[in-house]
Design brief:
With about 400 residues, the protein is of the alpha+beta class. The protein has eleven helices and 16 strands. α2 crosses α5 and α10 runs parallel beside α11.
């Protein structure tokens, strides 16, 4: 049972019992949401509960439980120097915020759908770009290597094509209609969820290709329009025997690829201040697109980590003002040790070229990202809203 003195806008009483979800994966899901999506959960609370943004800014929030009916967030006042420990402990008791789902979930597979519906609803209220549930079919025009280990797919979409909304919820439909362009031509920071299984099943896939994981995100590296078509580059880093790499290498001109979701990156904070961008091979396409469409008057510092020196050349085609700090490791770029190496290299650079870093965006392997967040927080002393370090892949 969840109890709190706070009331949500759906007038739900916190004295009601909520239905626990009894699945072994739940602990990992809660940990993932707290590490990767806490800013979104806080945004949910700002719209769905009666707490104002000013009130939420004074609280430390953590997702504590997921029920069939919604999320429960534990809220504790942020420490204040002039507040006694005892008073802090007393005020933090039973501070739980409840965020209801649109529809109660009956199985774990429904959780992602309800999360997306919440995000769409909240983003619309806040005037932000949001996840778009769509189905689009692109044609493969060519595939070429653009650095030692980076494969570029050129895709095309007939100009008459439109996005197909894949959810019947009216709120979702309204969000998707407000963002109905079939391709973000002049906007940075978009990822597409590609349906890898479509190509495996479609072509009985060239017998030596193992069955991949069903879906994979790749950044829209560049998009442009001709008189008859919309075109896009999607760049895929080939690193070992991975599902996405095998899928990309197997594609041939004339093949059709499907996307199921379009997701905007969290880049709003980069509009002002001195920015630091951190990328490994999987995220340099995102950084390259950010650089080409950079609007902040201050050129960013870019720290690029690659296993092979040949992949640093990827940025040669980017014609914009930025400072590149290359870091070549000669090994797979994963784990907490890499985070320490990145932090040490950043520290050494800032000693030689003093900069006051105001904003950070980065995307790396899961273990690296988790460790790097803490190191950068200690080094740069930034607010959580000014530092986005995402997980782009996991090293198994």
């Amino acid at each position: 049972m969840v109890n709190s003195s706070a009331a949500s806008k759906d007038n739900r009483s916190y004295q009601e019992p909520y239905t626990p979800i009894q699945v072994p994966e739940l602990t990992d899901i809660i940990t993932h949401l707290n590490e990767e999506h806490l800013d979104e959960l806080i945004a949910f609370a700002s719209v769905v509960t009666d707490h104002s943004k000013a009130e939420l800014d004074k609280l430390d929030l953590q997702l504590s439980a997921i029920y069939a009916e919604g999320f429960a967030l534990q809220a504790q006042p942020k420490p204040l120097e002039n507040r006694s420990t005892k008073s802090q402990e007393q005020s933090s008791q039973n501070q739980l915020l409840f965020i209801p789902f649109t529809t109660s979930i009956t199985q774990l597979e429904d959780l992602q759908t309800q999360y997306i519906l919440l995000k769409q609803r909240v983003d619309k209220k806040l005037g932000k770009k949001t996840i778009k549930l769509t189905k689009q079919a692109f044609s493969v025009r060519s595939n070429t290597m653009v650095s030692k280990n980076m494969l570029r797919l050129e895709l095309s979409l007939p100009d008459s094509s439109t996005s197909q909304n894949t959810d019947n919820d009216t709120d979702t439909a309204a969000v998707n209609q407000s963002n109905s362009s079939p391709m973000p031509i002049n906007e940075p920071g978009y990822a597409y969820l590609f349906d890898l299984e479509h190509n495996i099943q479609d072509s009985q896939k060239r017998d030596n290709i193992k069955t991949p994981r069903p879906h994979c995100y790749y950044t829209l590296r560049k998009a442009w329009q001709t008189d008859t078509d919309r075109h896009a580059w999607v760049d895929v880093f080939l690193h070992g025997d991975t599902s996405g790499g095998l899928w990309a290498e197997s594609l041939q001109a004339g093949d059709t690829v499907l996307i199921k979701r379009e997701v905007p990156e969290k880049i709003e904070h980069l509009q002002d201040g001195q920015a630091l961008l951190i990328a490994d091979e999987t995220s340099i396409p995102t950084v390259a697109r950010l650089l080409e469409l950079w609007e902040n008057p201050l050129p960013p510092l870019v720290l690029c980590i690659t296993q092979d020196a040949g992949d640093q050349a990827y940025f040669d085609e980017v014609k914009s003002d930025f400072t590149l700090v290359p870091l070549v490791t000669n090994q797979v770029n994963a784990g907490a040790d890499l985070a320490t190496l990145i932090d040490n290299n950043l520290g050494a650079y800032l000693v030689k070229q003093p900069l006051s870093i105001d904003k950070v965006w980065g995307a790396l392997e899961a273990g690296t990202a988790k460790a790097l967040r803490k190191l950068l927080k200690d080094r740069l002393n930034l607010e959580r809203s000014d530092m986005v370090v995402k997980v782009y892949w996991r090293h198994d």
